[in-house]
Amino acid sequence: MPSAAESDASRTIILKTTLLLVAITVHALEMFLPRIPFLPWLKPGLANCVTIVWIIRYGGVEALFFSLLRIWLVCFYFGFSFITLSLSLSGGVLATCAMGIAWHLFGHRNLIGTIGIAVVGAVFHNMGQLLTVFFLLSYNVYLFYQIPFMIVASIVFGMLVGLLAPMLAQLANGASKQMGGGAIRIPIEQAVPRLYGAVSVAMLVLSISLVFIDDRLILMILAILITMCVQIILGGSIQAFFFPIRRFWLLFLFVACLLLFLPYGKKVPWAPWFTYEGVHATVKQWLRLWTWLQISFIFTYFKFHAVIFRALDFFFKSHKSTLYSGLLAVEDFPGVFEIIRKRITMEFRPMLRHPIATSKNVFKKAFYDVADYIVAHHADFPKETDDKIS
């Protein structure tokens, strides 16, 4: 019979895992939304409603840890890439810090609500990503002409996230009260051979170094070598070879639009709207992008996610429950994603007829579906508790 403290710890881990899996699933579903060609990174950011609830329930430091786990787990399941990871980290970390400070300074005093906090988070998220695009993809100041549009988008999406946060907080409170006492089985952290860890760190260093390499020949050689290594590791994979173009063609197009039309330099005779300098800059940035996206397969093969988990464990020693929720989420995400996908598919037609009411109902059912799944697979709870969480 577990003690009261052990039961409370189990409830906390299950609730955190549920929130984390909801955030990852929402983030994953947003990846399938159509992209605006000149703003390929712009998304509603609905997962921020989970971040707001996490800040209010557990504090800013816990929320920062949660954001790092969420970003890393999305990369783990959908492909590591230095550029996409940089965009997610810059936006997610900056937004979480801004929302945490806003809640600490004004939220406790009822001077700002969840909508205000969400708008602050959306603004900082978009600004962080815009700065990352500027420094990693193009030093083109015309990029900042997007700021007015991004502010409008931040207000619209921020209001939507702020409206969802209280409903999610209510669901979290209800689920926490319904969970009975019991123990939870935590999966064992993966042991990573030193060679795997060394290779993963070396690839991370190379990914960062690519930002500072400006020689086109060196970039081309690195792109060829990394592509060959990936093909050797995977035993020859056409899918891996065309992955950068098939999955990120909009990003390649965006880079070309930023760099080809440079206002200075020598015009290309057969295409006077281009400059030689713009063509060279585009080719170099495409080579960087290609290499970053190919390196993602090396990260996955050498279990870089396990290295990151150990690093997070080192820096967040006093936040074990959040780390355990990350370990459970790694194991449960495929099953949870399929459950939520089926739920949305089943309710799709009613959502078209009654979008607001049906969406709320689907959101509530999906949340409890996730909690049920975690309890069924990891918790030694009494049978009657499983019946309550439904």
Can you summarize this structure?
Helices cover 76% and strands 3% of the residues. With 390 residues, the chain is mainly α.
Q: End-to-end distance, in Å?
A: 24 Å
Largest sheet: 2 strands, antiparallel
Query: What is the helix tally?
Result: 15
Helical percent range? over 70%
Mean pLDDT: 79
Total of domains? 2
Q: Which descriptor suits the 3D outline? A: globular
Gyration radius over CA: 22 Å
Element string (H = helix, E = strand)? HHHHHHEHHHEEHHHHHEH
Detail the poorly predicted runs.
Answer: 382-390
Structural class: mainly alpha
Please state roughly what percent of the residues sit in beta strands, choosing from under 5%, 5-15%, 15-25%, 25-35%, 35-45% or over 45%: under 5%
Please tally the β strands and state the result.
4
Order of the strands making up the biggest sheet: 1-4
Walk me through this protein's architecture:
The chain has 15 helices and 4 strands. The protein is mostly helical. The protein has 2 domains: 256 residues, no CATH class; 109 residues, no CATH class. It has a two-stranded antiparallel ribbon with strand order 1-4. A two-stranded antiparallel ribbon has the order 2-3.
Keywords, please?
mainly alpha, 390 residues, globular, 2 domains, two-stranded antiparallel ribbon, disordered C terminus, 4 strands
